[in-house]
Amino acid sequence: MTSIRIIPCLDIRDGRVVKGTQFVNIRDAGDPIELAKYYNDQGADELVFLDITASHERRETVAELASRVAEQIFIPFTVGGGISEADQIREILLAGADKVSLNTAAVNNPALIEESSRRYGAQCIVCAIDAKQTGDSWEVYLHGGRTATGLDAVEWAQEAVRLGAGEILLTSMDQDGARDGYDLALTRAISTSVGVPVIASGGAGTAQHLVDAVEKGKADAVLLAGILHDGVSTVHGLKEEMAAAGVPVRL
Amino acid sequence: MIAILDYGMGNLRSVEKALEHLGVDCRIQDDLKGADKLIIPGVGAFPAAMERLAPLSDEIRRFASDGGPLLGICLGQQLLFESSCEVEETAGLGILAGSVKPLPKDGGLKVPHIGWSSLCVKQNDGLLAGIQDGEQVYFVHSFWTDCADPSDAASLTSHGVEFPSAVQRENVWGAQFHPEKSGDAGLKMLENFAKC
Q1: Looking at beta carbons, which residues of chain A come within 8 Å of B20?
Q2: What class, spelled out in words, does domain B2-195 have in CATH?
Q3: Are A88 and A61 in contact (CB under 8 A)?
Q4: Among the residues of A18-62, which ranges form H helices?
Q5: Domains of chain A by range and CATH?
Q6: Taking CB atoms and an 8 Å limit, are B183 and A123 in contact across chains?
Q7: A193 touching chain B per CB within 8 A
Q8: How far is A35 from chain B (nearest CA, A)?
Q9: Contact yes or no for B181 and A120 at CB 8 A
Q10: pTM: predicted TM-score of the whole model, two decimal places
Q11: How crowded is the C-beta side of A89, counted as CA atoms within 13 Å?
Q12: I need a labelling partner for A81 at 20 to 30 A (CA). Which of A23, A47, A154, B172 fits?
């Protein structure tokens, strides 16, 4: 039995943690390493560091951040944002990150998934998908929701896995920051159409939302940020509620 | 001094940083020079790993047969065995008897097996000394080691198949999971190795 993973997400901008409500109105929420240790102590199963402005502003890699994190944090962590080359991925993994998350570059250059998966293994290649509902389906967006791609999210997830992605980090652009629950239909649509773990993201407000993402959305892991950064909830508290609801977690 | 073997496969810094955090003398190096203990880490595919390890394989086998403490982590555990069918049938180091097999993809379980799963502890000395039965540790793998001698299993974990999540035969230890990424329990195991 694999536990459902609770993954705090630290959105990074200028070396600081931020969390935007639907990706605008960004506000400062702390030092990445301090916050990472804080969540580690709360029982986080994994951490994700995303440089949310990376693709747009062409920022440098976060290999240095990965190195600093790896000195103090002994749980798995993923780094993403602005990664466009296999050599960058190597640098980040060697710095101590367990996985890298690819988003824009994967859409623009799907061969990057294939090459990096072949070189470093599928287990460290996470394909991040930002999806927005259009009618009965979901469309893939890039650049923090600013650019539509015309790609169907389910089809893109399947293609990414075929190319070698070992995990899908699925963010609902509609729900992100809303705190009224994950997009369960989207999560289920992706999770039941790929054979790799799916991390649900966008919309966490309560423990029940996490339970729903797992039981109804079939998610393997849940990503959350705002409710943790604000101190509304703790990882441990959420896990206790999830365990009480019958979800297998690591306590 | 613990040598962390660099043979061009995967995440060495994490193991090194965990040992440094514990205050253990360790060094990443591409040979066994000066090593009292040896850690073979590794992520990636078995055939590529064996190809890179080939120039050192006799020395590693000798180190183990002379009683040198050896810990294989993840792919490093798999390399200790006789063979693997990953990509193509490939001979391993053959220090432990058995072979490496793919996790079953049927039954609705996802592969790779990524995440925290519990250990059913079979040997509570050595690597798993002080580790509670049921402790959860972090896994990332698609293959498992089928021990020819079931008593080599130090712990068992299930993911479509019940597999030896840790192995231990005298001075040769292995962890299919990542102790360096398994929080306090994992650090305790690395400490056990450092003190053995």
Answers
A1: 71
A2: alpha beta
A3: yes
A4: 32-42, 54-57
A5: 5-244 (3.20.20.70)
A6: no
A7: no
A8: 16
A9: no
A10: 0.88
A11: 25
A12: A154
